[in-house]
Design a protein that fits this description.
283 residues, 9 helices, six-stranded parallel beta sheet, Pantoate--beta-alanine Ligase, Chain: A,domain 2, homodimer, Rossmann fold
């Protein structure tokens, strides 16, 4: 497994791969990897010849009040995990290599970035779109795989790729969960034992919604009320948002007809967790 | 000379060229070509194996009050001119192919875009950076050539390429002028005969500045005052801005030490013309 730290060296390496006809798969991460990330690497490996994983805790997607410095990091552990799933290369740049002096260029996906997580994190998706543009230009992949757990991020990236004509296929991979249903996240390590128990109500609320939808309920206010009741089962949970939106525009809807998503963000103590359920067209 | 209208077809064509080891040069234009554009094509041809010229009057760099609809267009004439200088391919997309329904992604180069033309055209460089990002992703060039006449545009693109890690060499090509010194521009066709005569004072003002600088004057207020006096020789000229700036940050400076630029924009009647003089380090 090759470790590359310099952006220009990564570009030259990807150019050489491309010139040989090798198809490149890419999984961008902020490190502190869990099985969710590893499943993205496996998925990329099924679709391409050479998988590059980037590890970079991107400062531009954190606001000044957020947990940039506290964000967990363990490169040695990540390296072992990535070797274990057959990763071909790791791009692991420094902050200075990514954001040199005088840095001032940002990519904004306007409407989709504003609802859901964009309400409490107004510059978050600008940071995500910017760093992903940079990583796409450095890694030059044919395919990139993102987790559906970060549903809004996936939709933002899909829109950006379409709008800016990136010649890259974007794959959304299903959320990987712990045995008990909690969506895997690097932030789960912040949870105390009692908080961890409360966090299970997130998946329970989404399951309740799914069951009601499958039974024929497609009115958003009804589904939201039932999900809210489940989350209110723990006084530790503070809802940041709970919404049902069109799966492509992320605009709130009253009734589920096409593809839609129930998206939820909660605070448990100081930890903010997100999850979602995607309503597929009944077939 | 191949004409390609579809972005995906252009990407596939460029991929095939790259896979053969062909180096691609690129000159983005809004059409209605003059010798200035053609010199960029020739320059790109010297540096690469295959030159692609794009012709696209980009709506996102015009404000609602500006001359988008009136902007001159003549594809048949452009085609003949491009054939004449050995252009290999022309990318000539429709507006709908470039900005489909739901379009919402923009690239912003923050500080550099705000001074000079950014004052009177606050969204102009956002439109330029956005369409150039799109064109880079579609044409996939190794080298792109821009005219120094649009000096701020060149600096914005250079900064964007560095910040977003585009693996593309950006060349700034010297301004091409009419016999009498007027910088070539598609907008020169708007000028009536008397306006055309007044327009010559722009180059005269820059020449006066150059002469004073070469004689040892490096104080910006003095040079600006002398240039202003030349421009005031015609009552038809209304100065939009006349500034001396650092050539990389475009921040105004009081004294010329490193690379700097005198940049000027004037209205003559309804026509807005720009020009500049770059102060090189005395050698």
């Amino acid at each position: 497994m090759k470790i590359i730290r310099d952006p220009v060296e990564m570009q030259q390496y990807s150019d050489a791969l491309r010139h040989q006809g090798t198809r490149i798969g890419f999984v961008p991460t902020m490190g502190y990897l869990h099985e969710g990330h590893l499943s993205l690497v496996t998925e990329a490996g099924k679709r391409t010849d050479h998988v590059v994983v980037s590890i970079f805790v991107n400062p531009t997607q954190f606001s000044p009040s957020e947990d940039l410095e506290a964000y967990p990091r363990d490169f040695a552990r990540d390296e072992t995990l990535l070797e274990g799933v057959g990763t071909d290369s790791v791009f692991y740049p420094t902050k200075d290599a990514m954001y040199a002096g005088g840095y001032q260029t940002y990519v904004t996906v306007e409407n989709i970035s504003q609802n859901l997580c964009g309400v409490s994190r107004p510059t978050h998706f600008r940071g995500v779109a910017t760093v992903v543009t940079k990583l796409f230009n450095i890694v030059k992949p044919h395919v990139a795989v993102f987790g559906q757990k970060d549903f809004q991020q996936l939709v933002v990236i899909q829109r950006m790729v379409k709008d800016l004509n990136f010649d890259i296929e974007i794959i959304g991979h299903p959320t990987v969960r712990e045995q008990d249903g909690l969506a895997m996240s690097s932030r789960n390590t912040y949870l105390g034992p009692e908080e961890r128990t409360s966090a299970l109500l997130i998946k329970k609320a989404l399951d309740r919604t799914r069951d009601l939808y499958v039974e024929g309920n497609n009115k958003a206010p009804v589904l939201l009320q039932k999900a809210k009741e489940v989350l209110e089962g723990s006084p530790r949970i503070k809802i940041d948002y709970l919404k049902i939106c069109d799966a492509h525009t992320l605009e709130e809807i009253e009734e589920i007809r096409g593809e839609a998503v129930m998206a939820v963000a909660v605070f448990i103590g100081k930890t903010r967790l997100i999850d979602n359920y995607v309503f597929r067209n009944p077939s």
